[in-house]
Each structure stands twice: as C-alpha cells, then as structure tokens.
Design goal:
Shape: globular
Structural class: mainly beta
Number of strands: 11
C-alpha cells in the first residue's frame, strides 16, 4: 500500500506563490505521482504529473508555465510549486499515486485559496 499526505495549502493573494508537498510512504517504488484539483461545483481535473521512471513532467494547459512539479526521492516527496496564482486556481488539491496494474492511491487534499 501507499499512503499520501498533502500539505502546504493556504490563502494567498493573486500573483503570489505556494508550494504544495505530497509525502509518500509505503511501497512507493515505481509509482507515478499526479496532482489534481477540484473546485466547488466542478469536476476534479488533472494539474500535472511526474513520471517515476525518468522524471518527465506533464502539465495541464491552464497551469503550464506557472506550475512546476519536482520530486525529492530521498524524502519520497513530490512538490507542486505554484507561481503567479490566479483566483481560478482556488481548489482542493490532491496528489495521486498510480502504477500500471496496481491500485491507485489518493491523499486527503490540501486547500488552496487565491484572493483577488
């Protein structure tokens, strides 16, 4: 099993920055980590992900150029650096661990609120 714990959310002014953390524990080897978010009344959407095999990262168009995903393998932690935040980035942010043929795991989420 894999356990995921997100942290780093909070209230920030538009144009500001936050760094979210996704700390993984358990049998984490080979799991890709993705970031998702869900705003009130909207469906959950993918923000970006990092490939565990080579560190490649992928981003949704809505955050490309503003958000960056990085991993610290020694700490089993994946970060989501969010810059130039906009009110529309307000959401509950989740990380997900996924690996082909294995169960998917989600964290409990961390709230990000961007004030205009």
């Amino acid at each position: 099993q894999v356990q995921l714990v997100e942290s780093g959310g909070g209230l920030v002014q538009a144009g500001g920055s936050l760094r979210l953390s996704c700390a993984a524990s358990g049998r984490t080897f080979g799991y890709d980590i993705g970031w998702f978010r869900q705003a009130p009344g909207k469906e959950r959407e993918g923000v970006g992900c990092i490939d565990s095999s080579d560190g490649s990262t992928y981003y949704a168009d809505s955050v490309k150029g503003r958000f960056t995903i990085a991993s610290d393998n020694h700490k089993d932690t994946v970060y989501l650096q969010m810059n130039s935040l906009k009110p529309e980035d307000t959401a509950l942010y989740y990380c997900k661990a996924a690996q082909s043929g294995r169960p998917v795991y989600w964290g409990q989420g961390t709230q990000v609120t961007v004030a205009s």
